[in-house]
Amino acid sequence: MQVRDFDPATADGDAFTDWLAVLNEMTEADMPGEPRWCDDRLGDYLSVTMPDEARVAWSAYDDDGAIAGHANLLLFGGDFAHTGVFEIFVRPSARGLGVGRALLTELAKHAAADGRQTISTEVIATTPAVGFYERLGFSRAVVEWRSLLPMSNVDWSRTSLQARQVSAPYRLEYHRGGLPDGLHERYAATKANLRTAGPQASEWRGSSDAVRLRDSLATLRGRGLRTHLVVAVHEKTEQVAGLTELVVAAQRPTRGDQYDTVVAPAHRSYGLALAMKARMLTELRSAEPQLRDVQTWTALENSPLEHVNAQLGFEQDVHWYEYEATVSDLLDSLR
């Protein structure tokens, strides 16, 4: 078996065909109900990063030259330059042959050479990856519920009513693809509340200042992800009282990914989270008619958003784990 560097910025069509084959075969084996990926802007998805970040990738090939798996490692900058996140995908027919271990060894060596102290990855709780990472000493840093809402199950009459249940002094705004000039600073100030709220606040890596927010939205566009934003504005002050974010990837256009939802402390208990998320669904109905479902994640510790999601029809379906390892300890385990 050979592990080679993979550069998505220069890769040809055959390389992306191979990449997709591994991912979709793995999805079919482990989570057959999940949507498949396509090659629309796949090179952009794998190569575009934030200005202070970098992504490196590898492919593994068997002795016959067929692709057996691939991996990528995103290296953060700024306050999180000590860490990175990675993904490993192994063809089901190649499992048990050391492919995952070889790819993990390569990326752990790269992380160490780059001065990273820790690396982490996300794993669906029902997949074989759980045992793989636990045997190598990874620890569960975060456990969340993943919830799904099929668009065919939405009660549109009720959802439309929920989206209109915003009383003065608030109004809801919907923005597709980005934010208008002048809103970035107020939006980022409200989003910064996530730095101090919730069990994962210390490791939250979102955009809590206007410059990083602009870079983040531009990066999403560059990767082929369409953004949909709903903002609650306090009309007396014009401050952003709350926000919710959703993206639809060109590479997986039938599923929406619900990102952060936050309400500023002074504006809680007014039903803004429910109204914003309901408004989002009503906008998606026409803006993304191909959507089959929306997924979102909530913490296990009595998240207030669990109640909001339930009112909209979301149902919890699987645990989502974030595994973390110290790079030096991981290299010892791999040896």
Average pLDDT metric: 94
By CATH, the superfamily of the largest domain comes out as: Gcn5-related N-acetyltransferase (GNAT)
Number of domains in the coordinates?
2
Classify the secondary structure makeup into a structural class: alpha+beta
Description:
Keywords: Acyltransferase, Transferase. With 335 residues, the chain is of the alpha+beta class. It folds into two domains: 2-146 and 322-334, Gcn5-related N-acetyltransferase (GNAT) (Aminopeptidase); 155-312, 3-Layer(aba) Sandwich (Aminopeptidase), CATH 3.40.630.30. It is built from ten helices and twelve strands. Strands 1-2-3-4-5-12-6-11-10-9-8-7 form a twelve-stranded mixed β-sheet, with helices on both faces. A hairpin with a 5-residue loop joins strand 2 and strand 3 (67-75). The radius of gyration is 21 Å and the shape is globular. The mean pLDDT is 94.
Summary keywords:
single chain; Aminopeptidase; Acyl_CoA_acyltransferase; globular; acyltransferase; 2 domains; 12 strands; 335 residues; 10 helices; alpha+beta; 12-stranded mixed beta sheet; 32% strand
Question: How does the SSE layout of this entry go?
Answer:
Layout: E1 2-6, H1 13-30, H2 42-47, E2 54-61, E3 67-75, E4 83-90, H3 99-113, E5 118-124, H4 129-135, E6 139-150, H5 156-164, E7 170-176, H6 184-191, H7 210-223, E8 225-234, E9 239-249, E10 252-263, H8 272-287, E11 293-299, H9 304-312, E12 315-326, H10 327-334
Parallel strand pairs: 4-5, 10-11
Antiparallel strand pairs: 1-2, 2-3, 3-4, 5-12, 6-11, 6-12, 7-8, 8-9, 9-10
Helix pairs in contact: 3-10, 5-8, 6-7, 8-9
